[in-house]
Amino acid sequence: MLAGLNREDRQKAMGFCRTKSNVKEEGKEKAVFLRKKITLVRAIALTIGTIVGSGIFITPKGVLKNSGNVGLSLIVWLACGILSLFGALSYADLGTSITKSGGHYIYLLETLGPLPAFLRLWAEFIMIRPANIAVVSLAFGRYLIEPLFAPCHAPALAVKLVTATGVSLIIALNCWSVSWSANIQTVLAFLKMVTIGLIIVPGMMALAEGHYENFQNAFDTRSLSLDKLPLAFYSGMFAYGGWFYVNFVTEEIINPERNIPLSVIVSLLIVTLGYLLTNISYYTVLTAEEVLASEAVAVSFTDRAFKSISSAIPVLVALSCFGSLNGGIFAAARMLFAASREGQWPPLFSMIHSRRNTPLPALLLMLPLIYLMVLIGDLYGLLNFYSFSRWLFIGLVTLGLIIHRYRHPEVPRPFKVPLFIPLVFTISSLFIVGMSLYSDPVNTGIGCAITLTGLPVYYLVVQKSRIPASCSAMFNSMTVKLQVLMEVIPQEIQTY
To answer: In this predicted structure, which of 156-170, 192-206, 221-235 has the lowest mean pLDDT?
Structure first.
């Protein structure tokens, strides 16, 4: 796809050409490649930091609304945690046998072939990633400035300006340094757990004092609507979303055969327990009606239960969202990087900054569509809009694991899960996706249609390029100029 100049021509054009002997003399330390800087602690911080974002603070309302009652909403939260663990274990199996970075994309490419992989990539770039980041970043902007306008709501324009500033700052941070991004992620992951603890402790104290009244008739079926239940799972799975991000950076993880499985198991157990206790705390202090009426459940909770720290909660939640954004952007750039390296995306995006060793072009590419989604600004509309494609392809990845097991039994698998686990996850994912077409046909239909727009792009450009030679030459010239401008070159050492 749009092959461009070969590696040496690119490097000569921008003054970065190095012969093989020179690279050997300078040593591996001076070579340009994505280095292994993700330890087990950083992998756990990346996983927890991307899972615990805005979800637990904004989606309890969505889970309760679509599940119909308090009891069923808690079951949905537990079921989403178990399903996420099944998915994470399946991905850990893939991540230890297919050692390339890129997550969903690379696993689809290796198990089901290039077309599903490209459609996943297309949906990720056009819809999933911008919408996901917009949801979390809008929550970040709202929680950060809402206290300044209390008791009124913050103006929508102000929220969007703060949101755009936060996203730009994270992109700049990731362009500057992998270590800085990883260290900030570790600190923010710790703050997330502190924030959740500040909600759990007063809730458990109230429960210990005998405040069970909000759990009376917890399974009242009067407002239960089974056709809306998949949307409750969408909201719950959104809150757990992020368990797969460690697989996006496989090549940068130290000892991935050990650290990928350990990080996802530890992270999901901590998060599932934390989410259940947090929701129990919400319902101990707030009635179901109050949860549904609240625009910011965590703030409503602290106003009622722990008023002395209520002013600090929005800031802590905003920092939690910031950490989730940082982890998501850090990981998503590696998918574009991997796709470009595989020849399904323009070659510029497989290049790395010559001094910073960061995938700068892949990071910058995400900005325009993120800004567009932030401008749209409907949190729940965006959530349902992209969830269809996201969970469809995640279900296909775990289906691909089952197929890959049968086709390639000889492939070494340092971490091997029973086939029951990916089978349950695949069926659950595809069932929820199928039901969502019935429950919310407009948003899921739009998501499906946008995903399918990748078909003509694949057949006209990727599979066999039908671009006129004049356009290819212009594209190649532009690629070289952008290389010079951004100071980027192809990776010099293979890391898989």
So the answer is: 221-235
Q: Which of 65-79, 333-347, 382-396 has the lowest mean pLDDT?
A: 382-396
Cα–Cα distances (Å) from 397 to 47, 87, 91, 171, 268, in that order, read: 19, 9, 8, 28, 19
Q: Which of 167, 145, 155, 114 is nearest to 345 (CA)?
A: 114
Query: What three-state secondary structure class fits 49?
Result: helix
Q: With DSSP H G I counted as helix, E B as strand and the rest as coil, what are the percentages for the chain, rounded to 5?
A: 75, 0, 25
CB of 105 closer than 8 Å to CB of 335: yes
Could you tell me the pTM of the whole model?
0.86
pLDDT tens profile 452-483: 999 998 988 887 666 777 777 888 889 899 99
Q: DSSP assignment of 144-177, as one string? A: HHHHHHTTSPPPHHHHHHHHHHHHHHHHHHHHH-
What phi-psi label fits residue 487: left (phi over 0), alpha (psi between -120 and 50 degrees) or beta? left
Provide the H-helix boundaries in 246-359. Answer: 256-285, 288-293, 297-305, 313-341
- Where helices occur in 306-440 by DSSP H, the ranges are 313-341, 360-365, 367-376, 379-407, 420-439
C-alpha count within 13 angstroms, C-beta hemisphere, residue 6? 1
- Give Cα 329 distance to the centre of its chain: 8
In the DSSP assignment, the letter for residue 468 is -
Alpha-carbon distance of 323 to 320, in angstroms, equals: 5
The percentage of residues in the chain with a pLDDT greater than 70, rounded to a whole number, is 90
Angle of helix 229-240 versus helix 420-439 axis, rounded to 10: 130
Question: What pLDDT, on the 0 to 100 scale, is given for residue 95?
Answer: 93
Give tens-digit pLDDT for 41-68.
999 999 998 888 767 776 688 888 888 8
227: how many CB neighbours lie within 10 A of its CB?
Answer: 12
Reported as type and span, the H/E element at residue 488 is strand 488-490
